[in-house]
Amino acid sequence: MVDVKSILMRVRADEKQSLSALRLICAGFTFAALVFALIAVALDDTFYLRLASEALILAGMAISVDLLLGITGLLSLGQALFFGLGAYSSALLLIHLTQNFWLVVVTVVAGAVPVSLIFGWIAIRSRGVYFALITFGYAQVISRIIYNTRSVGASDGIVGVPLISIPLPFFEIPINDPVAFFLFLLVVIVAIVLALWWLMDTPFGRVFPAMRVNEDRLPFIGYNVRAYMIAMYVLAAVIAALFGALYPMLRGFVSPELMFFEMSGNALIMVILGGVGTIIGPVLGAIILTIIKSIVGSFTEHHLIVIGGIFIALVLFFPKGLTGFLRLRVEALMRRRREEIQS
User: Is the pTM of this model over 0.70?
Assistant: First the structure.
C-alpha cells in the first residue's frame, strides 16, 4: 500500500530545499548588486549604473511574464502592453497632473487593474497558442493606436518627463542620483521576489502547480480555474505596469516601441535565460541579456545575430536556465553540508 502521507512529506521537503536554494541565489545576487554599486561609486560611474537600473526595470516586466508562463502555464506575447501603458500613464501624469511619486505609482497600478481584468477575461477563454496570439494582438493594436495618436506624441513618443524625488519617511531619493535610484530599484525587485515566493506558498499559490498538472480536475474539488487564472493575469499586469511607470522616471521619455513585440520577446528571452518558474530567474536573465546587448552592440551593428547564437547556446547547455543550473549546485552543497553535520 502506498504511503501517501510520507510521499507528500518528501515532496514538501524537496520544495523547501529548492526554495532555500533560490533564497541563497537571491541573497548572492543582492550582495553582488551592492558590490557593483560600491565599485560604481568608487569609479564615479553613471553610465553603467543607469544601464543596471534599466536592467532591473526590465526584470520587473520579465517577472510578470514568468508569473504567466512559469507559474500559470500561459505564454503571453504581449506583456509589453501593460509595461508601455504604465510608462505612458506615468509620463502623462508627471507632465500634466502631479509630480508626486507615490500618487503617480498608485494611479498607474490602480488603472492597470480594470484594463487587465477586461483583457484577461477575454484572453483566458483560450489556451496555448491561441492565448499567445490574443495577447500579441492586444499589444499590436494598442501600440499602433498610440503610434498614430498625435496627442501622445505619435511615433516620437513623449519627451521632457520631469525629474522628481521619491519621498520616504526620513529622507528623499532623488531620481537623478544614479546610485540612490539603483538601490531603490534593487530593494523593490528583491521585495517583490520575496513577496511572490510567499504568495506561491499560500493556499492561493499552491493551486497553480495542481492546475498545471491537471486543470480539468480542479473544478470537481471546488476551484474556479478561470478565476485563478484571471487573478494571476491581473497580478502580472500590475507588476508590469508598476515597472513601466518607473521607466520614464529613469530615461525621461517614452515611445511606442515600449509596447512592440520586441519588448515582449526580450522579456520572454530573459525568463528562459534565467529559469522559468523561479521568479528570481528573470532578474538574472535581464542582467545577462542587458550585458550581452551592451557589450556585443558596441562591436557590431548585427548584434541580434550574435545574441541569437548566444541564446541558442545557453538554452542547449543550460536548459533550465541559469537559476536552474545554480539551484542544482546549491542544493548539492546544502545536502553535503547536512550530511556532514549529521555524521
Answer: yes
